[in-house]
Design brief:
Distance between the termini: 27 Å
Shape: elongated
Number of strands: 0
Number of domains: 1
Radius of gyration: 20 Å
Number of helices: 7
Largest sheet: none
């Protein structure tokens, strides 16, 4: 994990990665011109075979966000992930070379696994906020399965729904496989401080795993940015310029990041 994942050099994970809504006030072109999508994959209507979504939203502070606010926080969560990814890289290096840093092998691996558990929590927070951009709230109930990890499972199940707007980016293929493996490791490693035995780190290709997830989030970011651009254009065309500028500028509040993450069910 010593290098930025391949293909992400010009992404939101790269140095100086910036919001795609910066300076996003529409030009003076005719409103009859279509807004370019950020992704070639449009959202599709749900197929008749798709299971119904749970209409009950999560009763946390996050559910009160409108799509613009959710996108703003999604950007902040991605910035936090970018910051934590650098930490995870150095942690992984220490875990694979513990003697070089004066750690016992067991202690080094244990600390890295705790770091990875925290990193996955931010991945999940970013996914929840991304879904909220499209008005999708993740159920805490037992719609898909029962057990202690229902909420974490439901986050991934929402992405795997064929009608999910970011299904192509995060709900299928290698990206989804990486998310599934990351959740499995999160569950396996969350009790590592209790001394439970787990396979050594060298058994996992964590560089590939994290790179796939960040790449999928980058594609999802583009789709969400396209959706927000369309919403901004519609408001602009309706003459609601003050609302447009207020929503685009957003706020720089970061306090939500240090509040207890009550959106997560252990």
């Amino acid at each position: 994990m010593s290098k930025t994942p391949t293909g992400l050099q010009d992404s939101i994970w790269a140095i100086n990665g910036r919001s795609r809504l910066a300076n996003s006030a529409p030009s003076t072109r005719s409103s009859s011109q279509p807004v370019a999508r950020a992704s070639s994959q449009p959202s599709r209507p749900p197929p008749s075979s798709a299971p119904p979504r749970n209409p009950v939203s999560i009763t946390t502070s996050t559910t009160r966000l409108n799509p613009t606010q959710a996108f703003h926080r999604f950007e902040q969560a991605c910035q936090r992930l970018r910051w934590k990814y650098i930490d995870l890289q150095t942690s992984y290096h220490r875990a694979l070379n513990p003697e070089e840093f004066g750690f016992l092998i067991a202690d080094a691996e244990r600390n890295f696994k705790v770091d990875f558990h925290e990193f996955y929590a931010w991945i999940e927070q970013a996914l929840v906020l991304l879904l909220m951009v499209f008005g999708i709230s993740v159920s805490r109930g037992t719609l898909y399965k029962t057990g202690n990890h229902t909420y974490h499972e439901n986050v991934l199940m929402e992405l795997e729904m064929p009608d999910c707007p970011v299904h192509e980016a995060l709900g299928k293929g290698e990206v989804n496989q990486a998310l599934r493996k990351a959740k499995e490791l999160r569950n396996r490693w969350k009790d590592v401080t209790e001394g439970k035995e787990t396979p050594p780190l060298k058994m996992y290709d964590l560089t590939w795993l994290v790179g796939q997830i960040l790449g999928g989030l980058e594609v999802g970011y583009g789709i969400a940015a396209g959706r927000m651009q369309e919403a901004i254009q519609r408001q602009w065309d309706d003459g609601d310029e003050h609302m447009v500028m207020a929503e685009v500028q957003g706020d720089d509040e970061w306090e939500w990041m240090v509040e207890p993450m009550d959106w997560e069910v252990a």
